[in-house]
Amino acid sequence: MRHFPQSERPLKIAVVGSGIAALSAAWLLSQRHHVTVFEADNRVGGHCHTVDVGDVSVDTGFIVYNEPTYPNLTALFRHLDVPTKRSDMSFAVSMDQGALEYSGTNLAGLFAQHKNIASPRFWSMLRDLVRFYREAPAGIRGLDPSASLDEYLDGAGFGTAFREDHLYPMAAAIWSTPAIEIGSYPAVSFVRFCENHGLLKFFRRPVWRTVDGGSRAYVERLVAPFRDRIRTNAPVTEIRRVNGVVQVSTSTAEPEWFDHVVIGSHADQALHLLGDPTDQETELLGTFAYGLNETVLHGDERLMPRRRRVWSSWNYLSQSAAAGEARGKPCVTYWMNRLQDIPDKTPLFVTLSPLLRPADDKIFWQGVYRHPLFNAATLDAQRQLWSLQGRANTWFCGSYFGSGFHEDAIQAGLAVGESLGGVKRPWTVAGESDRIDVHAATRPPQPR
């Protein structure tokens, strides 16, 4: 990765969006340059969204991280002195209103539904689960990178029960993607992700942590150096590149001119904002699609497994078509009391795409989050995304540069900040940009 030397004068840079990718770029760039952040919403943070329920702060988007696989986020927290505490990452499945239920916490959770003990399908799932955890890392060696997870599982002889009752629900909960689409994900990337995140370990899994006081506690620290240069309720309507400068138009003010623009929006939104996209921008950014997940913070226990002994931090719920509901977006309920160490006196759940609407008097907040969907085409596009950087004074960053998670977003934002601004993140970690494909970018023109 190339770092550009300091400009003759500070650059005037527009940053569009205020998710972690955009904010990490703005934070780094603000140390040397004049940064203006444009945010369409009335708050900053994107998926870092903390809601107050009484005297309790509850996260509804970004919730947990672990230090081994989130090295830059961990370093940022230490640099900003962000308080964190230990979390829990147990997982449960509940299908067809409890017709099948289990959790992976312990034997009591696995067999909380007593009929599982005598179920051939359940034992088939467990056998394949153990085999997948042991064999998958070696099994993908030499596999065509474009081969789908379905193709790998078929070739290795993994059964339907393992896929439908464990692997696809687990992956759907992680990626906020319909379980039916998980099989099209490239097998090599899927297994490597699971291995890197410790998901294929039976023991000594990484310790997961959460921000004490909610994720806004770290957003507030992050934006402190440039808080007065953030414009909320300022949706960008168009970005045009003209004669070596960039024009940014909003619905609330006259167009402004900048030396460069950093677009930290989702890939499809970034493409939509460009008034004069190049063929390459259209091709690469247009490859990415997004799923919309209705998200509700509530206290309705009907959106948890029926058996209390199965309750886990992450709970995947599904309703088959035979039971009257078409399969589609994943319904996942996060038990926030356990995830964020909140007293149980007020049950608090965050549910994505709820199978039924929580009782109105138990809803504390509701909104919509967008998550990137990945397949072989998007992974191929990711390998070329960095070639867009700096061309026509335009830079892109977001979680879509990697696997769609917080560390992917921060790696993309920091890499843009370093390449554009001639500044360096104030820490050193192994593999600082190893979750995104970074290579030499076009040198930005120096201001005159």
UniProtKB/TrEMBL annotation:
It comes from the Bacteria. Residues 23-277 form the Amine oxidase domain. Pfam families: Amino_oxidase. InterPro entries: Amino_oxidase, FAD/NAD-bd_sf, Zeta_carotene_desat/Oxidored. Gene3D superfamilies: 1.10.405.20, 3.30.70.1990, FAD/NAD(P)-binding domain. PANTHER family: AMINE OXIDASE DOMAIN-CONTAINING PROTEIN, PROTOPORPHYRINOGEN OXIDASE. This is FAD-dependent oxidoreductase. It comes from Neoaquamicrobium sediminum.
